[in-house]
RNA sequence: GCCCCCGUAGCUCAGGGGAUAGAGCACCGCCCUCCGGAGGCGGUGGCGUAGGUUCGAAUCCUACCGGGGGCACCA
């Protein structure tokens, strides 16, 4: 490849510019107005600007539309403009322009996608599993959505700083450590499990999770054990060496298990991205001091609190953040304030995305308000202010429509879900492709199964609650990742047969004088939107828009595939269609990649 | 009590104020002399209710109904 980057302006934006220009010429007072250009099923694009602004101008929409048609007459790249209905502008772009877009995008490594986030420094907080606890379906959303956003932002040129805010600190470690010390026979370490001393399939965290449950039971039943556990918490917080060592051991063992899940899911998170609650412990006293000194926090009832100026509690009093408890201890509110301060001051973020359950909405609202009052969000890296955003997602509901309760029975372990999906995929692949080697079969089943789980989660809108249904999640038909992967594999198959073994797109040199089949046109128009869609995904922090787009694009390809033979076409047509195949394959490949889903060449 | 989120087809979900509201699953009927049928084509079926803003509302506003969530010493 050339390595030369050539960002490409989408046809939609070109048309917007053209309509804007025409509008400014016809009606100077409307200069700068949104040209309201959308895709249309009656032409390539439509503009609704004549309808929208007619009233303001005291003009008839049809008349204004007519003037715009005239002004757009000789614009390069626009083949036809018609007034339709009460004043819609139906705009058709020239075939040559479509072929040119294809050519330009193929010539660029990044398919012409603009680096719209160049220079931005974005912290993304996601996943955040709890140490010594099993990762379950409730962790899927934050992990998958956060990872996809990290990929998209990175692709758009941002410097992305991933932060895995592990739940690695708190009173529960007192009872766990105490229990482990009193029961040296307990088997929970990675090495214990590998040596086969426990049931197969058990993981470190499930062992720890089990220990936690018995410790909890003993804590509730045995007053003396409860006292010893509380003493352990004090020892841990005071930095007692033996206690800390045990704690560190538990954290390390848990992280091994998390890494297995991340590896399996193809999530970018690495050990270096871990910055758990314990990290911020050292700064909690000074954060409280700083809050008090600034007058943002105050003493109340023996504790230190930040009273909200915006939100009221049930009793009509201000809602509060509890930054220091009456017993002198610190909780989650203080930790989150220290975390935010660190991300601004030390990580130099100019945007922070918290990919966290929607139930935390009030909490983050209070945290962000306090941070604003502290001036922590005042200055970003080249921006007026740091943007702190709670990227909230809906609750995972059970089959009964009730929320999955974290510790009530019936939670589905993430590893179990992945295994189910991969098994399901393996059965399908084995049936369809009996000649595959076992290794190849495993690889494809893994890619299809894991992809299905991720896509099922990513493809629904973020803020809504969603119903967890394992059967639907492992399903491989319809609007699933497998449909996209399959479309990609079919294209790769065509390219292989055409003798095009290169994975990198060559400069295509399409013949732009050839007429276009409607299915070719629809496909080029879809492919041309890729970069714009990525900007939308970024702006709204909504990966499901990318899913919708890729599904539509794969359908456009399938339609093309059904209607436009490639290999048997005459030479010029064949070359153009091969170029179209290359861009379609590359777009699906990149798009799936930004969702964190593999796009195998065969499946 | 107050605040936040959500009500779209039998089910699970898309729908950046625009023309005839779309997919998938399920169900019924078709399509392999043709680049991979994990596919394609056709059929059945819907915007919680009532107002308002607008030339135009699933989309914006208000009220109500229904579901979920949150509201100081747990994280």
User: How would the global form be characterised?
Assistant: globular
Q: Could you describe the largest sheet, including whether it forms a barrel?
A: 4 strands, antiparallel
- For the termini, the CA-CA separation is 27 Å
* Strand proportion: 5-15%
Spatial strand arrangement across the major sheet: 1-2-4-3
The low-pLDDT segments are none
How many helices in DSSP terms? 22
Mean pLDDT across every amino acid position: 90
Helix content: 40-55%
Class from helix and strand fractions: alpha/beta
Radius of gyration over all CA atoms, rounded = 28 Å
Secondary structure tally: strands: 13
Describe this structure in words.
It is built from 22 helices and 13 strands. By secondary structure, it is of the alpha/beta class. Strands 1-2-4-3 form a four-stranded antiparallel sheet. Strands 6-5-10-11 form a four-stranded parallel sheet, with helices on both faces. A hairpin with a 3-residue loop joins strand 3 and strand 4. The chain is globular, with a radius of gyration of 28 Å. The two termini are 27 Å apart. The model has no long low-confidence stretch (mean pLDDT 90). The chain binds one RNA strand of 75 nucleotides through helix 2, strand 8, strand 9, helix 13 and helix 14.
Properties at a glance:
four-stranded parallel sheet, 13 strands, RNA-binding, alpha/beta, 22 helices, 603 residues
List the helices and strands and how they pair.
Blueprint (H helix, E strand, L loop, with lengths): L10 H16 L10 E3 L5 E3 L1 H9 L3 H11 L6 E7 L3 E6 L1 H12 L14 E5 L14 H16 L3 E5 L8 H11 L7 H5 L9 H18 L1 H16 L2 H25 L11 H4 L3 H10 L3 E4 L2 E10 L5 E7 L7 H14 L5 E7 L3 H14 L12 E7 L2 E2 L16 H19 L5 H21 L7 E2 L2 H4 L7 H17 L20 H11 L1 H11 L3 H20 L7 H24 L9
Parallel strand pairs: 5-6, 5-10, 10-11, 12-13
Antiparallel strand pairs: 1-2, 2-4, 3-4, 7-8, 8-9
The protein binds one RNA strand of 75 nucleotides through α2, β8, β9, α13 and α14.
């Amino acid at each position: 490849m050339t390595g030369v980057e050539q960002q490409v302006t989408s046809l939609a934006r070109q048309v917007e510019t053209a309509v804007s220009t025409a509008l400014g010429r016809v009606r100077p007072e409307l200069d700068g107005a949104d040209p309201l250009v959308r895709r249309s099923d009656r032409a390539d694009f439509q503009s609704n600007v004549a309808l929208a602004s007619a009233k303001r101008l005291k003009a008839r929409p049809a008349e204004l539309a007519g003037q715009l048609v005239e002004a757009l007459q000789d614009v390069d790249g626009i083949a036809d403009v018609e007034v339709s209905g009460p004043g819609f502008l139906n705009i058709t772009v020239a075939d040559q322009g479509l072929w040119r877009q294809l050519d330009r995008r193929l010539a660029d490594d990044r398919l012409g996608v603009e680096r719209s986030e160049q220079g931005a420094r974005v912290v993304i907080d996601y996943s955040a599993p709890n140490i010594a606890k099993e990762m379950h379906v409730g962790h899927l959303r934050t992990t998958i959505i956060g990872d996809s956003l990290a990929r998209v932002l990175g692709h758009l040129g941002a410097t992305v700083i991933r932060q895995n805010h592990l739940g690695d600190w708190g009173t529960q470690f007192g009872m766990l450590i105490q229990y482990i010390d009193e029961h040296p026979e307990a088997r929970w370490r990675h090495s214990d499990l590998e040596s086969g001393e426990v049931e197969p399939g058990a993981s470190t965290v499930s062992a720890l999770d089990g220990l936690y449950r018995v410790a909890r039971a003993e804590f509730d039943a045995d007053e003396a054990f409860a006292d010893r556990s509380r003493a352990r918490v004090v020892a841990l917080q005071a930095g007692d060496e033996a206690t800390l060592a045990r704690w560190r051991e538990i954290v390390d063992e848990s992280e091994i298990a998390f890494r297995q899940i991340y590896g399996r899911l193809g999530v970018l998170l690495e050990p270096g991205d871990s910055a758990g609650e314990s990290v911020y412990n050292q700064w909690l006293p000074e954060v409280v001091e700083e809050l008090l000194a600034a007058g943002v926090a105050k003493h109340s009832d023996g504790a230190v609190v930040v009273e909200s100026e915006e939100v009221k509690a049930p009793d009509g009093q201000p809602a509060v953040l509890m930054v220091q408890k009456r017993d002198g201890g610190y909780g989650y509110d203080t930790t989150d304030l220290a975390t935010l301060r660190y991300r601004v001051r030390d990580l130099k973020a100019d945007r922070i995305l918290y990919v966290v359950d929607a139930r935390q909405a009030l909490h983050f609202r209070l945290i962000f308000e306090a941070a604003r009052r502290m001036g922590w969000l005042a200055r970003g890296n080249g921006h007026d202010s740091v943007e702190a955003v709670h990227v909230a997602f809906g609750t995972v509901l059970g089959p009964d429509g009730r929320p999955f309760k974290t510790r009530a029975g019936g939670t589905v372990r993430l590893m179990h879900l992945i295994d189910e999906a991969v098994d399901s995929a393996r059965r399908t692949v084995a049936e369809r492709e009996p000649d595959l080697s076992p290794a190849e079969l495993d690889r494809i089943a893994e890619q299809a199964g894991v992809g299905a789980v991720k896509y099922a989660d990513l493809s629904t809108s973020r803020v809504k609650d969603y119903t967890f249904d394992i059967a639907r999640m492992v399903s491989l038909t319809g609007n699933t990742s497998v449909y996209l992967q399959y479309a990609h594999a079919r294209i790769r198959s065509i390219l292989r047969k055409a003798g095009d073994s290169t994975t990198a797109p060559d400069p295509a040199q399409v013949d732009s004088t050839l007429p276009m089949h409607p299915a070719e046109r629809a496909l080029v128009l879809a492919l041309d939107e890729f970069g714009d869609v990525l900007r939308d995904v970024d702006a709204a922090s909504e990966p499901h828009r990318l899913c919708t787009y890729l599904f539509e694009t794969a359908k456009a390809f399938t339609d093309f595939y059904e209607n436009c033979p490639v290999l048997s076409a005459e030479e010029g047509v064949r070359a153009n269609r091969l170029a179209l195949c290359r861009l379609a394959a590359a777009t699906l490949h990149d798009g799936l990649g930004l969702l964190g889903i593999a796009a195998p060449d065969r499946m």
